[in-house]
From TrEMBL:
Its cofactor is pyridoxal 5'-phosphate. Keywords: Aminotransferase, Pyridoxal phosphate, Transferase. This is LL-diaminopimelate aminotransferase. Pathway: Amino-acid biosynthesis; L-lysine biosynthesis via DAP pathway; LL-2,6-diaminopimelate from (S)-tetrahydrodipicolinate (aminotransferase route): step 1/1. Residues 35-402 form the Aminotransferase class I/classII large domain. It comes from Desulfocapsa sulfexigens (strain DSM 10523 / SB164P1).
Length: 407
């Protein structure tokens, strides 16, 4: 008799963003004339930078001729992209990362979800609350938690990110092995300073722990004193893996390209307490389960680092940040407390009521989709997230409608 993985039965009924899409679809069906503005899921709306589409087209043409056609590429990514990444994203900021420490992939969601399989079943996992749901759900699927009770899974060490700690969790009281972090944060939009991040790196070094650092939103950092990469922090290469994405920084959500950095010095321990490098293990996993990102997509990603690509990608991000500024100032005028929106595309708002109730009210009265904070964890109850990924005109319209709905 074939038996299912019982751990899947512990999961909440559906993935947060699928649940929201379903609700919005039903609402649209019963209100076909109502124009809906989506400030929910963090999905980009503006076209790819022109430099990227030009490189994309050119690479597709190469695929159309036998003489320049390419079949399977290197699983870890083409050298042209890995070299452009390290030069522009790390070495230019004083972080000493080498091209062969980069693993190109089709998304930070997959990488942050898959990385956990390298570690033991009994690893003590620390996960912030609220947080992007993938970190938690993938550990539930893998059987590292008990049941869901009172809004939380048994066996996880939750790191509360609340107004009291400025949405940056402090070190855990108990010893943990694997620590998920995300800055600029999804969903709160909060940022971490170099000094704060240093305390986490020091903790990981002292406790033989590993940090999984999701930096998918680094392109939104305007404050130059803030770290864009964990490798700007002393000692981080030994104890941290970093995840990056072209999705939000260059509009690649539908194109799919991201990368993970696994420094050669980064280690975990085997059953006898010996140090094992993580790099060859992730490489082994990548080669076995992944066949690389398509050649035209990698050429499009490489173009993000051309002079024109840099300017155009920056323009995209600046446009979304302008939306974020508008959302933040309108929310402030409405008298709501919030965080984020300055170095992040997300604005995390204290809703002063049940977060799903607020979601329903905004959809019904304003035709605006937000993300209910409760979907990101117990500490998200009472909050909603607004995303700046839309056109400025739509954001203006959405904020005018929200103002009316809350009046
Ligand atoms: C979000 O809205 O939190 C993100 O868009 C989800 C994702 O990047 O997968």
């Amino acid at each position: 008799m074939i038996k299912i993985n019982e751990h899947y039965l512990k999961l909440q009924a559906s993935y947060l963003f699928s649940n929201i899409a379903k609700k919005v679809g039903e609402f649209q069906k019963s209100n076909p004339d109502k124009e809906i503005i989506r400030l929910g899921i963090g999905d980009v709306t503006r076209a790819l930078p022109q430099a990227c589409t030009e490189a994309f087209h050119k690479a597709v043409d190469e695929m159309a001729a036998d003489s320049s056609f390419r079949g399977y590429g290197p699983e870890q990514g083409y050298d042209f992209l890995r070299e452009a990444i390290v030069k522009n994203d790390f070495q230019s900021r004083g972080a000493d990362i080498a091209a062969d420490e980069i693993f190109v992939s089709d998304g930070a969601k997959c990488d942050t979800g898959n990385i956990q399989e390298l570690f033991t079943q009994d690893a003590r996992i620390a996960i912030p609350d609220p947080v992007y749901p993938v970190y938690l759900d993938t550990n539930v699927m893998a059987g590292r938690t008990g049941n869901f009770e009172d809004g939380r899974y048994k066996g996880i060490v939750y790191l509360d990110a609340t107004k009291e700690n400025n949405y940056v969790p402090g070190l855990p009281e108990e010893k943990v092995d694997l620590i998920y972090m995300c800055f600029p944060n999804n969903p709160t939009g909060s940022t971490i300073t170099k000094a704060e991040l240093q305390t986490w790196v020091d903790y990981a070094r002292e406790n033989q722990a590993l940090i999984l650092f999701d930096a998918a939103y680094e392109a939104f950092i305007r404050d130059e004193s803030l770290p864009k990469s964990i490798y700007e922090i002393e000692g981080a290469k030994e104890v941290a893996i970093e995840f990056r994405s072209f999705s939000k920084s260059a509009g690649f959500t539908g194109t799919r390209c991201a990368y993970t950095v696994v420094p050669k010095e980064c280690t975990a321990y085997d059953a006898r307490g010996g140090k094992q490098a993580i790099h060859p293990l992730w490489n082994r996993r990548h080669c076995t389960k992944f066949n690389g990102v398509s050649y035209p997509v990698q050429r499009a990603a490489e173009a993000v680092y051309s002079e024109a690509g840099k300017t155009q990608a920056k323009e995209l991000v600046t446009g979304y940040l302008k939306n974020a500024d508008l959302i933040a100032s309108e929310i402030k005028n409405l008298g709501y407390d919030f965080v984020g929106g300055d170095n992040s595309p997300y604005i995390w708002i204290e809703a002063k009521r049940d977060s799903w109730e607020f979601f329903d009210m905004l959809l019904d009265k304003a035709g605006v989709v937000c993300t209910p904070g409760a979907g990101f964890g117990k500490c998200g109850e009472g909050y909603i997230r607004l995303s700046a990924f839309n056109s400025y005109a739509n954001v203006e319209k959405a904020m005018a409608r929200i103002k009316k709905a809350l009046a």
